[in-house]
């Protein structure tokens, strides 16, 4: 698992500086709930996850909901600090909740419902709030999905990854791909929006294997598909296998061909990209994204859009990251340390940083350029700044950026640009 970033030591009570109140009334507030438990740890995964057998002492799955609720109580106190209120921090209802992991559905639905109730009781949920949980296909059944919907969840994201058993085996995924149609049908019957996650570039995966997976995902008629290129992380089982020569590194050209195939098949099925790795279905009559200010489709992940747009969110759980008004912080990683600090009435934050204007602008470009709605280079002007015009002209010439959008001061990536998004970012942030 990656080490936590460096940063300044946060106060034990988690208090935030009054500066975070500036502009808060124009920003949404989201909550991320991290559930760090998995039945087995997949060989490619470097997320902060644990099997239940590794934990104990108030940090295991049975006690986790109570621990997370302690952090929600702490968060409520921090955001309601009179010093923040005096600086203009408004009371905001939560627009999105995302329960991720790990495998959140390793917990009983009753525990997930209690955590969501804690958010609802503390801040309230905005009208039409999006409430998502991740789930493995083998971790839920029809009754569990119906119970999640009854508890207030609106969306479920299934970790499909592949439809090819040999590819799943290389990834150490344990579910039977034949179960996906059942779990999607059960989610639909419960009234939940459905997203599926795919991974391309697994060692040994052929282009036809990838076609099989994308076509299988399309056949599920999901509202949303995420398609991520495999990254072999140091410190993982797969990283060790690659280092020993047991598995080949993913090939950039192979991954590019697979991305182009995904774009072709998903677009043909009515799933348009709204972020480089994410595709969503538009409802009939919904605006299609044409014009000067395109909008994300209704079935886009609004929680993830909040990250990409620099909104506010509080991350609950070990290793979770948060961002409010230009202050970013991250929690201690181990669930036992996390639980112990909260039991003592202390913030679980391990470090934080206050982002300066230059860093915030860099991150706005890095994240915003990935969105189909486009990055406004100089907000409010409708023009490309003078100092960036040569770089933008060069990007257009390379076929990376859409010419018509650039004339309005927006950077919108072409298909080739999506494959080379990092090149675009470097050109715009000299």
UniProtKB/TrEMBL annotation:
One Pfam match: Radical_SAM
Q: Which CDD domains match?
A: Radical_SAM
Top-level taxon: Bacteria
Q: Which InterPro entries match?
A: Aldolase_TIM, Coproporphyrinogen-III_oxidase, Elp3/MiaA/NifB-like_rSAM, HemW-like, rSAM, rSAM_sf
> Which GO terms fall under biological process for this protein?
porphyrin-containing compound biosynthetic process
Can you name a GO cellular component term?
cytoplasm
Coarsely, its chief localization is: cytoplasm
Which UniProt keyword terms apply here? 4Fe-4S, Chaperone, Cytoplasm, Heme, Iron, Iron-sulfur, Metal-binding, S-adenosyl-L-methionine
Q: Which SUPFAM superfamilies match?
A: Radical SAM enzymes
Task: Please list the residue ranges annotated as the Radical SAM core domain.
Answer: 23-271
Q: Where in the cell is it found?
A: Cytoplasm
An example of a GO molecular function for this protein is: metal ion binding
Functionally, this protein is described as follows: Probably acts as a heme chaperone, transferring heme to an unknown acceptor. Binds one molecule of heme per monomer, possibly covalently. Binds 1 [4Fe-4S] cluster. The cluster is coordinated with 3 cysteines and an exchangeable S-adenosyl-L-methionine.
The entry sums up its family as follows: Belongs to the anaerobic coproporphyrinogen-III oxidase family. HemW subfamily.
Name listed for the protein in its UniProt record: Heme chaperone HemW
Q: Which organism is it from?
A: Georgenia ruanii
């Amino acid at each position: 698992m990656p080490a936590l970033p460096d940063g300044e030591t946060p106060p034990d009570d988690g208090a935030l500086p009054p500066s975070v109140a500036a502009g808060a009334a124009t920003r949404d507030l989201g909550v991320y709930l991290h559930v760090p438990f998995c039945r087995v740890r997949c060989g490619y995964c470097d997320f902060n996850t644990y099997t239940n057998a590794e934990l104990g002492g108030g940090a295991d799955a049975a006690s986790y909901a109570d621990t997370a609720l302690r952090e929600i109580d702490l968060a409520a106190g921090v955001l309601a600090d009179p010093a923040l209120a005096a600086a203009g921090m408004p009371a905001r209802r939560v627009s999105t909740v995302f329960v991720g992991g790990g495998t959140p559905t390793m917990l009983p639905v009753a525990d997930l419902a209690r955590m969501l109730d804690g958010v609802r009781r503390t801040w309230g949920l905005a009208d039409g709030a999006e409430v998502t949980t991740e789930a493995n296909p083998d971790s839920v059944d029809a009754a569990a999905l119906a119970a999640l919907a009854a508890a207030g969840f609106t969306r479920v994201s299934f970790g499909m990854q592949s439809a090819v058993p040999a590819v799943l085996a290389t990834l150490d995924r344990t579910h039977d791909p034949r179960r996906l149609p059942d779990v999607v049908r059960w989610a639909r019957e419960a009234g939940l929006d459905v997203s599926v996650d795919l991974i391309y570039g697994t060692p040994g995966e052929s282009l036809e294997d990838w076609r099989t997976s994308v076509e299988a995902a399309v056949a599920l008629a999901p509202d949303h598909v995420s398609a991520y290129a495999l990254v072999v992380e140091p410190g993982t089982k797969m990283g060790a296998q690659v280092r020993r020569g047991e598995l080949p590194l993913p090939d950039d050209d192979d991954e590019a061909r697979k991305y182009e195939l995904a774009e072709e098949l998903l677009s043909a099925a009515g799933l348009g990209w709204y972020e480089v790795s994410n595709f969503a279905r538009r409802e009939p009559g919904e605006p299609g994204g044409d014009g000067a200010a395109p909008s994300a489709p209704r079935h886009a992940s609004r929680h993830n859009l909040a990250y990409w747009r620099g909104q506010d969110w509080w991350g609950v759980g070990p290793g979770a990251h948060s961002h409010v008004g230009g202050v970013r912080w991250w929690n201690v990683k181990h669930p036992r340390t996390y639980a112990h600090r909260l039991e003592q009435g202390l913030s679980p934050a391990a470090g934080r940083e206050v982002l300066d204007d230059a860093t915030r602008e860099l991150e706005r470009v890095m994240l915003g350029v990935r969105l189909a709605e486009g990055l406004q280079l100089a907000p409010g002007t409708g023009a490309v700044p003078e100092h960036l015009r040569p770089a933008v002209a060069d990007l257009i010439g390379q076929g990376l950026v859409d010419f018509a959008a650039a004339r309005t001061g927006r950077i919108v990536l072409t298909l080739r640009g999506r494959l080379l998004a990092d090149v675009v970012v470097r050109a715009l942030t000299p």
